[in-house]
Amino acid sequence: MRRKLIAANWKMYKTPEGAREFAAAFLPLVKNVHHAEIVVCPPFVCLPAMVEALHGTRIGVGGQNMLWENEGAYTGEISPGMLRAVGCSHVIIGHSERRQYFGETDDTVNRKLRSALAAGLQPIVCVGEVLQEREAGLTEEVLARQCNIAFSEISTLEAAPLIVAYEPVWAIGTGKTATPEMAADAHRVLRAEAAKAFGDERAANLRILYGGSVKPENAKALMSEREIDGALVGGGSLDPKSFATIVAAGDF
Ligand code: PGA
Question: What ligand 1 atom has the least distance to the C-alpha of 173?
Fold first, then answer.
């Protein structure tokens, strides 16, 4: 039985003050939630405020990115050790916006993943096809390649905290969502890749989230699909009520 996980990816929205306001409004709405784990990934500058505002709750805080090195002359970068030091439990790795605008490759995703695991962070690794790839019938091939490279040189034991998010790029921020069936098909491909890398047992326990225009209106249909173990939510996570409704939709 895989526990649902619902993660907020705020992208480049909100200041520390906005993060505190969010927490004050959100916490009362989810105080009775036991069915799912909740993680919020705000911008770096909001992390200390978020950790403080969520102190004593079971809600985790995560970074949206990191470099694989722990320190050094890397202007503008943040290390896994720094994320740990401010109280992060999770980190998003390989988000499609990082791949699309900031030159991330399957190889850098692998380096980041290994480094996050070594630092004791729970990585949420994002994979997904672009529209042309889906239309050309290449979805399975793309997902297999992304996983194959991301998961290389990681042992089954090391992979224990790993979480994967399937985020079809054409569904991110576009209002278009994959149908629950489409997402479930992709999740089966990802689980099969995880089985090749880490064995059947680890793959069976692997949580695979769906991301891409998850909203209060579609969250239940998506999360009631057996293959979908939760959601990575962008735009729908910025408003406390909207995100709390999505969290509640994972309960059945
Ligand atoms: P969206 O973003 O929910 O705004 O589509 C999801 C994501 O990019 O993680």
Answer: 5
